[in-house]
């Protein structure tokens, strides 16, 4: 349903005493697209900001008692129904976006919200984003549910899919769970549809390196830096890199600089947490022999190197033939040459 927000606003404003009308129009940005601060309005009228706040509060209180016409009543009813269908609350920016994307209408909408019977605004705070609700206990319920999810997700230590999230929440009320996620500052959804803590790089990548980490985690296998750049640009519309195009060389430079990524083949990288170790093929062979604690056959060395690197067999054999580093025992097995 569409409403002419500007006309509805004008109908209400016209009933406000002229001496206070300018204060309200400027405070909500009804005449100028940009709302003015209490301080700015106070300076204009040579009154304190607290006096401006009092005028605003009194005018809104009186405006609520004005006999609204049918169009206004219809709008308020629609607004209440919309909030109920959304789970009883809605984050402020998303609520506005659901009704209008016009800057002037946004201010009219916020003014009407302030007058809507039974609907309350909850300000931005360390726990939640600013939101509106037609349930007075909404804030406590949202924070309680969000804290429960934060605790359980933190305990799990990794992002979860929607089905697992519903199980963790202990509620089948999906609309309410959705508003908890959108309003809580501690929970978020990543571009791959996984839920977790907002502070996690896997949920909110803070740069190219974090996004590369997320892409590798998602694919669960080593990738060439060109493929990583390609995948990152595929994800642009899902909030990883915004609108910035990532060039292959940019991805490659970030992979080189971050210890989380290990070069496992020509231009191909894996995550260190998968068990890969840094170093050349020669260094990998050395580590394998040290860890084994005994000599190994050529096949055993090859198998273990292949688990760490994407290399040709001959590359491994060529390194094993380095007599300055490796030697063979009487049975033909390889070991590190003693100094």
From TrEMBL:
GO molecular-function terms, A-Z: DNA-binding transcription factor activity
Superkingdom of source: Bacteria
UniProt cross-references to PROSITE patterns, sorted A to Z: HTH_HARE
One protein family per Pfam: Sigma70_r4
UniProt entry keywords in alphabetical sequence: Transcription
Record domain HTH HARE-type: where: 206-274
The UniProt record lists the keyword Iron-sulfur: no
GO BP terms in the entry: DNA-templated transcription initiation
Entries under InterPro entries matching the protein: Asxl_HARE-HTH (IPR007759), RNA_pol_sigma70 (IPR000943), RNA_pol_sigma70_r4 (IPR007630), RNA_pol_sigma_r3/r4-like (IPR013324), RNAP_delta_N_dom_sf (IPR038087), Sigma-70_RNA_pol_init_factors (IPR050239), WH-like_DNA-bd_sf (IPR036388)
Entry-linked CDD domains: Sigma70_r4 (cd06171)
Entry-linked PANTHER family: RNA POLYMERASE SIGMA FACTOR RPO, RNA POLYMERASE SIGMA FACTOR SIGD, CHLOROPLASTIC
Protein name stated in the entry: HTH HARE-type domain-containing protein
């Amino acid at each position: 349903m569409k409403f002419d927000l500007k006309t509805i606003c004008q109908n209400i404003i016209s009933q406000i005493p002229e001496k206070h009308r300018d204060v309200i129009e400027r405070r909500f940005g009804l005449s100028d697209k940009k709302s003015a601060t209490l301080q700015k309005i106070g300076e204009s009228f040579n009154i304190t900001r607290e006096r401006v706040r009092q005028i605003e509060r009194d005018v809104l209180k009186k405006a609520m008692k004005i006999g609204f016409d049918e169009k206004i009543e219809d709008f308020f009813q629609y607004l209440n129904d919309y909030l109920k269908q959304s789970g009883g609350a809605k984050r402020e920016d998303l609520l506005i976006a659901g009704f209008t994307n016009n800057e002037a209408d946004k201010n009219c909408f916020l003014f009407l919200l302030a007058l809507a019977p039974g609907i309350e605004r909850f300000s931005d705070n360390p726990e939640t984003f600013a939101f509106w609700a037609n349930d007075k206990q909404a804030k406590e319920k949202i924070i309680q549910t969000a804290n429960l999810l934060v605790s359980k997700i933190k305990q799990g230590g990794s992002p979860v899919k929607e089905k697992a999230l519903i199980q963790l929440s202990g509620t089948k009320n999906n609309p309410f769970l959705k508003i908890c996620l959108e309003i809580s500052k501690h929970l978020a959804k990543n571009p791959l549809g996984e839920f977790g803590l907002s502070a996690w790089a896997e949920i909110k990548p803070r740069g190219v390196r974090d996004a590369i980490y997320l892409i590798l985690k998602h694919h669960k296998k080593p990738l060439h830096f060109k493929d990583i750049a390609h995948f990152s640009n595929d994800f642009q519309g899902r909030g990883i890199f915004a609108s910035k195009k990532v060039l292959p060389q940019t991805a490659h430079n970030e992979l080189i600089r971050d210890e989380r990524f290990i070069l496992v083949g020509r231009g191909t990288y894996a995550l260190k947490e998968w068990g890969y170790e840094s170093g050349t093929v020669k260094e990998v062979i050395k580590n394998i022999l040290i860890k084994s604690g005994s000599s190994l056959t050529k096949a055993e060395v090859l198998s273990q190197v292949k688990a760490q690197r994407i290399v040709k067999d001959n590359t491994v054999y060529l390194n094993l033939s380095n007599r300055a580093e490796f030697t063979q025992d009487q049975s033909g097995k390889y070991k590190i040459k003693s100094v």
